Amino acid sequence: MTERPLSTDGDLLVAAEVRKEFGGLVAVNDLTFTIPNRSIVSLIGPNGAGKTTFFNTLTGLYKVTDGEITFDGVDVTDKPPHAITKLGVGRTFQNIRLFRQMTALENVLVGMHSRLKGGIIGSVLGLPRVRREEHEAEGRARELLRFAGLRNVDEELAESLSYGDQRRLEVARALATEPKLLLLDEPTAGMNPQETTTFMNFVSKLREEQPIAILLIEHDMKVVMSISDRVTVLDYGEKIAEGAPQEIQKDERVIEAYLGKGANQ
Amino acid sequence: MARRRDRARGAMRSYRSQAAQRSGMHRVRAAWNRLPEPVRRFGPALLVLIVAVLYPYYLSSLPTGNVPLIYSFPSVRSGVTIIVFTMMAVGLNVVVGYCGLLDLGYVAFYAIGAYTAGWLASGQFQQVRFHFGSVGVSHSAQGIHISLWLVLIIAALVTAAGGILIGLPTLRLRGDYLAIVTLGFGEIIPQFVRNADSLHGFDLTHGTFGISPIDSPGFGNAGSHLGLPAAYSQSFSADKLFYWTAVALLLLTIVICIRLRDSRLGRAWIAIREDETAAGAMGIPLMRTKTWAYAIGAFFGGAAGAYIASFNSGAFPSQFSFNISVFLLCMVILGGMGSIWGVVIAGAILSWLNVEGLANIGTWLNDNIFPASHQIEVAKYQFGIYGVIIVLMMMFRPQGLIPEARRKREIEEGTRGSMDEPLYEMRGADEAGAGERGSAGAIPRG
């Protein structure tokens, strides 16, 4: 496989030869992958190509079979999800996984968990320090909800929000973990074109306003091609192409994977 | 889409308000809502507290014998047991209601608490003579006699430590598996105390005979200046003293549980209950947070166990049956999982039925309804009756007597969530394969 690393230093995340097997099935096949600082990298590929599996290995949800993942200079290969989140990886889920019976505000506050300190004794005694922290966290959570475009739903239960709002809330919750790297797993799935445009503007705004990198799994090619700095294409757990959006669009192997052999002849 | 939702929302609201007006509840509710916020918040609890605290005083003026259905009001002595069991239910609610961990072995914590009190405040260890702040015990008495106030705290801490020890290996499991393992621990501990009367010749638990007598709390000479009783057991109003102390303990438990629920930790518990995988991905350390829930549930179970051991002046292995675990779980389910007030009310009702209510109801029925030739013994059918209560609750009010605030909202507003669903399903259909593999089957290594 011809490697063409876009940047060698200043990589926020480096995944080296990551392999994930489920029984005999190789879902991710020795994938080497980097995410430069403050970039938007997209991961595309046909259904079942191993994109989400790879995502889950990055966030510690799956243990890798082999390989090494370094985030921000720290080896996170065998770290549990909460530790990786604390280091600065925030994520959303492909099939929305909000805390359904918690309000939008509480969902965001849960996202702040690793950034807050309030302990048991302090909470039980209602120490001023803990009260102040909670108060400030609530203020920040409300700001994040505004930032994500959620208005007047702070006290609504997550499950009663509209689909688009639930997607936005997932992003707000992920941002509450104060990530350096935000992983978005098909954020526009199920959105209409108008909502998709709004969402993509939001992501662009996000990158401008906050010093974070974004890894995106997306099926909507218009979205991928318009906002990505780099696109990586997976098929059967292997990287079949990597490069700037324009290059990817012309790549024969990519066209073959998506449309079948001979489609471009 | 937003407009469609607003319209549906508006329609729902007007429908609901019409229904409320028809039922006449509207006016009562409106009047209630006009009251200042502190009154609404603390009023009902304060009222209940006053009624409970004054109970020993007005009990004697309540009618006794042949009160319709309940026959007679519970004695102060029964009141202590009822309150202590309610306290355990509130503790179990932290584990089951907040954190969503099904614990079928809570009785183990009750046992650990009771036996810790037995070891530290009785003549069990005749080999030694250690007194520390104990009251009402002869100075020459052998055994360990530590002030029962201290013992309550020690027992709670020891039990919390026990909860952590039990939790560390078991809390990696989810759902049904966890329930089965806790069930095992709930059986192991009573079996252990039953058989630990000769550990290499050392009598730790006195076997089936149990540890008895156990010291009472008291204030000794220090308290007499303040008009406090020297020792509960030597006072003619011991039952009342035990009763008020139990009320205070329950109150403390409730306050702590409410504070915890509204804290960072409480949010983490509820998040784990809602979606463990997502909670982990949001930075919540799953094992540690679940272990805390277990430890805090155990803490109150241990304190309650120690207190009731002192009240009964004994700890016996036969007290710690599996039935107690189920019974406590029934209180939590009946009250509404996660709802403190619901659990308190359900706990009080079920413990009362258990302590004397069923027998009293039976007596009343036999005296007034059933002919002398067809007398029944209601207390015999107690587990059948609890079973029926649970089945009826699940059929007609699955959210419990007083649902947790968030659950209540869910049921009231349930119709709204599905509004935009079709959009998702359409897309979801062709994504199902990848999605399922991606996250639904995920098992994080908490």
CATH top-level class of the domain at 11-88 and 179-259 in chain A: Alpha Beta
Relative strand content of chain B = under 5%
Give the SSE string of chain B: HHHHHHEEEHHHHHHHHHHHH
- The shape of chain B is globular
Count of helical regions of chain B: 18
Provide the descriptors you would attach to this structure in a database record.
heterodimer, A: 265 residues, alpha/beta, Rossmann fold, six-stranded mixed β-sheet, 10 strands, 23% strand, globular, disordered N terminus, B: 446 residues, mainly alpha, ABC transporter involved in vitamin B12 uptake, BtuC, 67% helix, disordered C terminus
Protein model, in words:
The complex is a heterodimer of chains A (265) and B (446). Chain A has 265 residues and is α/β, with parallel strands linked by helices. Chain A has a domain at 11-88 and 179-259: P-loop containing nucleotide triphosphate hydrolases (Rossmann fold). Chain A has ten helices and ten strands. Chain A has a six-stranded mixed beta sheet, sandwiched between helices. Chain A has a four-stranded antiparallel beta sheet with strand order 2-1-4-5, covered by helices on one side. In chain A, α3 packs across α5 (128-147), α3 (104-111) packs parallel to α6 and α5 (128-147) packs across α6. Chain A is globular. Chain B is mainly α. Chain B has a three-stranded mixed beta sheet with strand order 1-3-2. Chain B has 18 helices and three strands. The model of chain B is unreliable at 413-446 (pLDDT under 50). Chain B starts with a helix and ends in a 6-residue tail after the last helix. Chain B has helices at 2-23, 25-34, 37-53, 55-58, 76-98, 107-120, 148-170, 175-195, 220-224, 238-261, 264-274, 276-281, 286-312, 322-335, 340-368, 382-396, 405-417, 421-440; strands at 121-122, 129-132, 143-146. Chain B is 67% helix and 2% strand. Classes of the chains: A alpha/beta (265), B mainly alpha (446). At the A-B interface, α1, α2, α3, α4 and α6 of A face α10, α11, α12, α13 and α17 of B.
